[in-house]
Amino acid sequence: MTLVLEAAVLGVLTGGVYALMASGLTLIFGVMRIINVGHGALVVLGAYLSFAVWRSLHIDPFVTLLLTMPAMFGLGVVLEMVFIRPLKSDRDALSVLVTYALALGIEGVLGYFFTTNYVQLHAWYDTASFPVGGFRVTYVYLIGFLLCLLILGALFFILYRTTFGASIRATMLNRTAAQLIGVDVDRVSAVAFGIGMATAAAGGVVFGITNAFNPGSHYDLISRLLTIIVLGGLGSLRGAIIAALVMLVSEDITSVVISPVWASFVFFVILVVVLLVRPQGLYGVRVRDRI
Amino acid sequence: MTPQQMKLARWLGLAGLFVLALLVPIIAPDPATTNIAVFTMMYVGLATAWNIMGGYTGYVSLGHAGFFGFGSYALGLMLAHLGVKAGYGPFLFVPIAGLLTAVLALGIGWFALRTRAATFVIVTIAFMFMLQLLAENLVGLTGGGGGLSFPVPTWGGDFFNTPFYYAMLALASIGLLVSWVIRHSKFGLGLLAIRDDEDKALAVGVPTRAFKLTAFVISACLVGMIGGVYGYYVTYIYPQFVVDPLIGISMVLMVFLGGLGTISGPVLGALILEPAQLWLAYNYGASRLYLVLYAAVFLVVILLMPRGILPSVSELISRRRTSAGPPATAAARTVPR
Lengths: 291, 337
Prior knowledge:
The complex is a heterodimer of chains A (291) and B (337).
Chain A: H1 2-32, H2 39-57, H3 65-84, H4 91-114, E1 129-132, E2 135-138, H5 139-161, H6 163-173, H7 175-180, H8 185-210, H9 218-232, H10 237-257, H11 263-277
Antiparallel strand pairs in A: 1-2
Helix pairs in contact in A: 1-5, 1-6, 1-8, 1-9, 1-10, 2-3, 2-4, 2-8, 2-9, 3-8, 5-6, 5-8, 6-8, 9-10, 9-11, 10-11
Chain B: H1 3-27, H2 31-57, H3 64-82, H4 89-92, H5 94-112, H6 117-137, H7 139-142, E1 148-149, H8 162-183, H9 186-196, H10 198-203, H11 208-234, E2 236-237, H12 239-242, H13 245-258, H14 265-284, H15 289-304, H16 309-324, H17 329-334
Antiparallel strand pairs in B: 1-2
Helix pairs in contact in B: 2-8, 2-11, 2-13, 2-14, 3-5, 3-6, 3-11, 3-13, 5-11, 8-11, 9-11, 13-14, 14-15
């Protein structure tokens, strides 16, 4: 029983990271109606950027975010303007191809500079732990979870308490209508992509300190992130957060109760069952012809 | 030229191309070239098969690598359990592998086609990873990460690639024939209607669900058969190698390059991209730059020609024709006498 409880707690803590990464992805979908298959590669890119800064400046991995998040935000704005904006027709399919190409390119560049050997970020607290009830929790999971909560909080603040957030939400609801009332949807799209990449940078640090990673790690990440946002309902932040928690908790419990190799399979089964009942996902809005 | 003559010229051209394809192993018998020919013909088949679903109905599946891998495993396991000897025998089991893939696709499609557009894309990706995971975890059946060996063909030397080339050519030709028949049938019209506006298609009486599912199953069946031949060709497979997202996305890119929803577009796309991909892998495969270059090819193709070569070129020709033909009415009217 303690084991299951421990798995559930760990699932919630690591679920926070996936919630952060998935909310960036679902935000990008919501605003631009594109599937960013390169999101996993962006997370890995963020992890490598932090790794490079951490190795050369010898500062705490989490502090590197002060440098990497603005850098990734800027890169995101540029990527959106150069690669996503020119896509006019068939956005569903073409955006998948373009972002997949970006993922391959990032994987290739990272492999060129950092080789394909596995690396990991380290800090003094990544093995230290504290007792909770009958088991111990490693500090790094708790710190990562708190960081993710902080950034998710900031994201919700921007979206629901600022004027710019209102124009983002307006664009998500109806792009044409937003344009008609004077929202500069192109600018909103670029900034939303930048925000998505900045959250990927933050997710990357937590991912890189809790996992060993290499340039090819993005395949595993993106398959999880995509299933999370579909389960939550495309474009829904709340859905993404809940689905991330469901995924990680169910995975961790499966690994202790059945076997680690079946962990991600259980999530796929949950996805199938949910989509049978609600094809639009947990919090998705059923738009005719769209979803 | 009269329309009859043009039709005749087109058929003669097609027959000439087919004869040329038949002669490839005789014209260039060295193994390096025939190896490229096998892979190119494989992608001609894959892109054509994908186009039947993705091009005609507009439902983009990124999970076709799952059917490819499933067909591969289906053939490999049949050969192992039935004790089929190496030689030409295994080719006879390829249609059965295709049939099994079709049954799988019926199940997956029945479920996946409840969703549309972006959700459908992601659900197909999820199913692909699910199949990969199953191939890895069902160690007792598939051998798991240890992989699965096929019987090694009895022939060798320069001739080794040739039977596989003809097998791929046969499957690609069947695919093209099926694609042609569908495009010229009422069923094909229904599929195109679904692509243009599914709700209206349903309203005017197209049985959209049955049509989509049929196209999905046909497409997957062809891909599964090609996967089977591929497995026998490489003689050793493991989950990440045959259920490879890169295979799934390559066929999609080829269709987009050639022309989505056209019959010959996927062929053109495969003929251009696959040799280019092999060339890049051969020359830059040692460094990770190969991936960067391939990504660059991808981006150039999509950003410069989002509609594909064939539609762009045919639009250009028809525009040229109208401006070069008898004095255009609009121009004639504006010029004062």
